[in-house]
Amino acid sequence: MNIWGNKFKVSIFGESHGNGIGVVIDGIPGGIELDMEFIEREMQRRAPGKNNLSTPRSEADKVEILSGFFDGKTTGTPLCGIIRNTNTRSKDYNKSLMRPGHADFTGFMRYGKCHDYRGGGHFSGRITAPLVFAGAVAKNVLREKGVYIGSHIKSICDAEDVGLDLVNIDKELFDAVSAKEFPVINDDCGKKMKDIILKARNEQNSVGGVIECAVLGVPVGIGSPFFGSVESKISSMMFSVPAVKGIEFGKGFEFTKMTGKEANDEFYADENGNVKTYTNNNAGINGGISNGMPIVFSVAVKPTPSIAQKQRTIDLESMKNTEIEIHGRHDPCIVHRAAVVVESGAAIAVLDMILEG
Amino acid sequence: MNIWGNKFKVSIFGESHGNGIGVVIDGIPGGIELDMEFIEREMQRRAPGKNNLSTPRSEADKVEILSGFFDGKTTGTPLCGIIRNTNTRSKDYNKSLMRPGHADFTGFMRYGKCHDYRGGGHFSGRITAPLVFAGAVAKNVLREKGVYIGSHIKSICDAEDVGLDLVNIDKELFDAVSAKEFPVINDDCGKKMKDIILKARNEQNSVGGVIECAVLGVPVGIGSPFFGSVESKISSMMFSVPAVKGIEFGKGFEFTKMTGKEANDEFYADENGNVKTYTNNNAGINGGISNGMPIVFSVAVKPTPSIAQKQRTIDLESMKNTEIEIHGRHDPCIVHRAAVVVESGAAIAVLDMILEG
Amino acid sequence: MNIWGNKFKVSIFGESHGNGIGVVIDGIPGGIELDMEFIEREMQRRAPGKNNLSTPRSEADKVEILSGFFDGKTTGTPLCGIIRNTNTRSKDYNKSLMRPGHADFTGFMRYGKCHDYRGGGHFSGRITAPLVFAGAVAKNVLREKGVYIGSHIKSICDAEDVGLDLVNIDKELFDAVSAKEFPVINDDCGKKMKDIILKARNEQNSVGGVIECAVLGVPVGIGSPFFGSVESKISSMMFSVPAVKGIEFGKGFEFTKMTGKEANDEFYADENGNVKTYTNNNAGINGGISNGMPIVFSVAVKPTPSIAQKQRTIDLESMKNTEIEIHGRHDPCIVHRAAVVVESGAAIAVLDMILEG
Amino acid sequence: MNIWGNKFKVSIFGESHGNGIGVVIDGIPGGIELDMEFIEREMQRRAPGKNNLSTPRSEADKVEILSGFFDGKTTGTPLCGIIRNTNTRSKDYNKSLMRPGHADFTGFMRYGKCHDYRGGGHFSGRITAPLVFAGAVAKNVLREKGVYIGSHIKSICDAEDVGLDLVNIDKELFDAVSAKEFPVINDDCGKKMKDIILKARNEQNSVGGVIECAVLGVPVGIGSPFFGSVESKISSMMFSVPAVKGIEFGKGFEFTKMTGKEANDEFYADENGNVKTYTNNNAGINGGISNGMPIVFSVAVKPTPSIAQKQRTIDLESMKNTEIEIHGRHDPCIVHRAAVVVESGAAIAVLDMILEG
User: Fold this and answer.
1) pLDDT (tens digit per residue) in A11-48
2) Domain spans of chain C, in order of start
3) What is the rounded average pLDDT for all residues in chain B?
4) C151 touching D, CB under 8 A?
5) CB contact (8 A) between residue D303 and residue C220
6) What is chain C's pLDDT, residue by residue, as a tens digit (357 residues)?
7) Sign of the C-alpha dihedral, residues C182, C184, C187, C191?
8) What is the Cα–Cα distance from A5 to A14, expressed in whole angstroms?
9) Distance of CA D179 to CAs A343, D173, D296, D338, Å?
10) Is the pTM of this model over 0.90?
11) Mutation target vs B (from A196, A240, A244, A261; most B CBs, 10 A cutoff)
């Protein structure tokens, strides 16, 4: 279950404190020139250690490509990219105290005593680094097909950024937002969010938020009933990203307060004979299949579970009720780092559906 | 993409107005006694034509089992169940006018001119009947493992039912709710919801709502990182259900307003040495793996797109902008009929994960 | 594991003595006109009860299409075809005596006591009827792509038919052979084979043989390393056919007596610039990928295990060593009926690879 | 299609002359102590450059484990092993002359101009090195379940080793044979084979042969109808191994000369109440499911296509008919190196079926 996709298959491996992490991508079209600078920039959007909003654990996150790449282009055979773990402090981790909100307990129950518990092991958010690499490769392929993906932080607690207009979204907006250290549309809103994060940090607490992501230029007709809807594919990928606990497409939960008359997106043919909808409440998806309008969705990211405050828990060895204080280097918020992860997941999902034909 | 699952595989087929619809289930454990009365009751919970809240199209929805069933028990080989379509009025459907909010346009773009457009064809909500059959079989198997699934309507527009207590849910509640014609916990709330639906019906309009579903008795340790999380599997199934546009697990989008301290579910060992959590914000799932607490999630169901009011659309043949009035027999709301569909999808997803081991 | 294929997926169900058997085909291109007469003819090539070379159990093997078919054409959604079992005599079967060479013992061990043992249940050769239906549909699709499939009986015991010329095979030959009641190229050879079969029948014994199958017009470039070679896909399908115990492509086992110089198929460009090989020892496959020459393979079919002679076996209930005499209606040889099954499997495998692109 | 397996999934990557090759194994049970010396020995059985029967290209084939391995044991998460390519001489390879019997032509047609043609690229026999690593890990796991796998060279041209007794096979025999530089049972037969190989080498030619492989201790009941038979799974894996062109199980093609009476393996219960068969013509498999007797199969390996003799071919750039002389370092025979590859493939296939349950 560490493999995802039908045509663009990603096979993820690695633990937070092992020798290395990485991904094998099977099914990349051959002859794609990889823009290594772009890929590097994407990796940096996720990388930790850049400011006081994130964990001070600093990792180069340099990807080495072992295969499937020749003369600057993909060959069409599996592309393996690996990342060495360099900055690990395993002594920060205790084997038998189960951190609340983390996968320590469930990981032990599933994998047994030989589970690599250090730093969350295979459950660590660090494993999203190879996902971002695969996503950057997918974006690179999608760009040649005229498909663009971007995102912004929609909210942190009750601080909200301006929302996307579901009908008219400009890809230049994505370039502007993704170049920012803190990816919001309105920097004043961003300032409020950062203050909330720093406050949480000072209180040894953490916060979450909502990321809104859009995919532009998706061809009409991708996604497949009954079980391969665009929503199914994207959500299945999104819930692989640690800390994501909700997703909605277009109007999502707001739909449940609307009438059919308000909710339906009426069709029209524009002057060029392209079929469009006046509104885009359905986020470019009807019956699970893309209709050519932007695909827009939001994901809920819960607060980082690693907090320094004392918490109640159990000691799995003694099976005693006890308390835990989590030290080490942690993120008071991961939402700003997670934006590129969400985009990457969307890129992989959309490319897979396009290649499925 | 009409096949779902790794161990308990369901393969769905059929169109709204063809000869029949059905499902092949591959991977049912052998020797399971099927409770045909229970299965029949589940089918009836979804079946149309029972009251003025639903479409008057009346279908017997009687399942005939062709294989995999011998002497009252499953044999372990594929079980095929078919349902004949009997009450079809194809003349209600126009081939070239695209109904807003429906899959007419995307279906034509994906499948081409030979697409069976009648009644939504393969996209019809009618195709959820075999899903309910498969779900009832899954529930039957789960019951022997001590796993129970139930749901209620959480809201219709702004009328809300009382919510579930995430920590303490009683399976008897499910029996009570599922026996009701209108599945809510508090019937006064239900009365308000029904009024909203009838009002929409009278205005030739429609409404949606939220369904809350819970799975009790799930063993610790099901679900698999990185891509096979409990949330990924359930959401992938839920977004196959027509009209579902959002899903959240536990606190879901509310998580984004909480701090880590509030969000984390602290562990304790109860008097029997079972590990539990004081709260259950994470809906029984940590790191994508079940922790033994109830799995609770909500899905957003959009208003039925079939409304009799005049709407703008295109004529795909002439590619002219025009208007459409949808006649025929339609549901002013499908939320009450969809509850058992959501439960069925959850049953299939959870059983598949349990069998994956 | 009753589902095969990546793009053209067949999902097989049914038992020899249950209500019915059938297949769901997911992934057929839409808009394909189905030649129902051709499909019916293919079904008849496999059907029993036609002469003294086969079992007298007579089955109409009439397929009813339930879905995915509209106005004489495929719709692109799953096509389900079902066949009723009509001529069953379950009293011929004993539950606890394990028939040698059959799956009685392994079936019980795998599926347990609730296994439908009657007539081999899900293991019965009867389950190849839906496979032939799916294969006929696949052939129908392949024909429009210029791909043709045929076969002949290469040998029964030591009676051999003339072999195919691996380089030059004419599709008219297939039409001629498949129209024969006994599918051989040279009818004198066929006469010898039939005598061997009748002799076995009279001696309450059975015989096997070799079927040689060829696929013409395969586009260059289908099949995928590392694990999706043309040979892997075809062999995986062939070993699903009951009684097949060996397969070889092109020179197959003869290769092991040749030198590289003899074995290599040298390339040339013909007058039209098409790349061809002078010889075709590799059966149109290099590195697991088709090179445009005919794909030719042979399968070994073992003697029918159902023989009336007394055999030693165990009684699974008492776990005593004992003897068995198998009565009922059985085939002294299934090779002539299996030819169309082998072709059908090849059609499904080749079409799946073509659709994978 | 570079991924194989349902529960024990191997994902292969790499090219002969790229940075590295390797494999990700997803689904290894956790807590398995890996015997690194044994794994290293298996790698050496395949490694080139050891004597005059093989290519002088010398590769250390040292595997580095990046993930899924902690404190000497598997963790249950994906295990990635990589091997660096060190001894590459890419100048030996010409881009536009298609080597007969190789995948040059089909590779170009499938992957296009950006295909890494050097040394066969992804088609190279070198890619079997990570397969042997994965196979050694699988054997390590199987050993704990009492399952043992071995093989010997059955023939090179017309020189034959003594065959295995299908009923009684001793695992000690495997240890003895696998420790030999040239894996045969009878060394006199081996001497004849080696002479044939050296003669081919001196004549700038090559030869092939048959490898016979056996799996002992397989539990009763693995393999699944209809499409997951033991034969289907093993053959699908075997035809992924470059140069394999035929496979037969048990009596295989000999079955077609036998009668049912001779072919059927009669059952008996031994003194311990274990069900066995007097003969084992069916190679431990009935109806695609294991019956507990040894699984024995033979594969045909064609002569190495790389020969130094002049051969006719085309120049793909000019599309002219021309000639080619292949220089570089090649194997006059790969059968002795392929034995461990065949065992590895069998180990992966059998373990996958056991884990499928």
Assistant:
1) 999 998 899 999 999 999 999 999 999 999 999 999 87
2) 3-356
3) 93
4) no
5) no
6) 899 999 999 999 999 889 999 999 999 999 999 999 999 999 999 988 777 787 776 777 899 999 999 999 999 999 999 999 887 666 656 778 999 999 999 998 988 777 777 777 888 889 999 999 999 999 999 999 999 999 999 999 999 999 899 999 999 999 999 999 999 999 999 999 999 999 999 999 999 999 999 999 999 999 998 999 999 999 999 999 999 999 999 999 999 999 999 999 999 999 999 999 999 999 999 999 999 999 999 999 999 999 999 999 999 999 999 999 988 778 899 999 999 999 999 999 999 999 998
7) negative
8) 19
9) 52, 10, 20, 15
10) yes
11) A261
User: How many other CB atoms sit within 10 Å of the CB of residue B309?
Assistant: 15
- Residue reference for tokens 């396009």: A354
Q: How many angstroms separate the CA atoms of C171 and C214, rounded?
A: 9
- Given an 8 Å threshold on Cβ–Cβ distance, is A71 in contact with D114? yes
CB contact under 8 A, D231 and C239: yes
Closest to C315 measured CA to CA, from C130, C123, C104: C104
Contacts of D357 in chain B (CB under 8 A): 357
Q: How distant is the Cα of A33 from the closest Cα of chain B, in angstroms?
A: 28
- Interchain CB contact of B278 with A (< 8 Å): yes
Mind spelling out the 3-state secondary structure of chain A? CCEECCCCEEEEEECCCCCEEEEEEECCCCCCECCHHHHHHHHHHHCCCCCCCCCCCCCCCCCEECCCEECCEECCCCEEEEEECCCCCHHHCCCCECCCCCCHHHHHHHHCCCCCCHHHHHHCHHHHHHHHHHHHHHHHHHHCCCCEEEEEEEEECCEECCCCCCCCCCHHHHHHHHHCCCCCCCHHHHHHHHHHHHHHHHCCCCECEEEEEEEECCCCCCCECCCECHHHHHHHHHCCCCCEEEEEECCHHHHHHCEHHHHCCCEEECCCCCEEECCCCCCCEECCEECCCCEEEEEEECCCCCCCCCEEEEECCCCEEEEECCCCCCCCCCHHHHHHHHHHHHHHHHHHHHHHC
DSSP letter for each residue of C316-337: TTTTEEEEE---S---S--HHH
Q: Where are the beta strands (DSSP E) in chain B?
A: 3-4, 9-14, 20-26, 63-65, 69-70, 73-74, 79-84, 148-156, 159-160, 209-216, 244-249, 267-269, 275-277, 285-286, 289-290, 295-301, 311-315, 320-324
In chain D, which residue's Cα lies nearest the Cα of A67? D14
Q: How confident is the model at residue A114 (pLDDT cuts 50, 70, 90)?
A: confident
Closest-CA residue of B relative to A14 is B226
Instruction: Note the Cα C206 to chain centre separation in Å.
Output: 19
CATH topology of domain C3-356: Chorismate synthase, AroC fold (3.60.150)
How long a stretch of residues is chain A? Answer: 357
Q: Which two tokens stand for residue B335?
A: 């939320």
* Beta strand ranges found along chain D (DSSP E): 3-4, 9-14, 20-26, 63-65, 69-70, 73-74, 79-84, 148-156, 159-160, 209-216, 244-249, 267-269, 275-277, 285-286, 289-290, 295-301, 311-315, 320-324
Q: Does D108 touch chain A (CB under 8 A)?
A: no
Neighbors of chain D by Cβ distance (3+ pairs < 8 Å): A, B, C
D64–chain A Cβ distance below 8 A for any pair: yes
Q: What six digits make up the tokens of A66?
A: 């072992």
ipTM summary value: 0.96
Mean of per-residue pLDDT scores for chain A: 93
Could you read off the pLDDT of D256-315 as tens digits, one per residue?
999 999 999 999 999 999 999 999 999 999 999 999 999 999 999 999 999 999 999 999
Q: Alpha-carbon distance B297 to B309, whole Å? A: 33
Give 3-state DSSP helix, strand, coil % of chain C, rounded to 5. Answer: 30, 25, 45
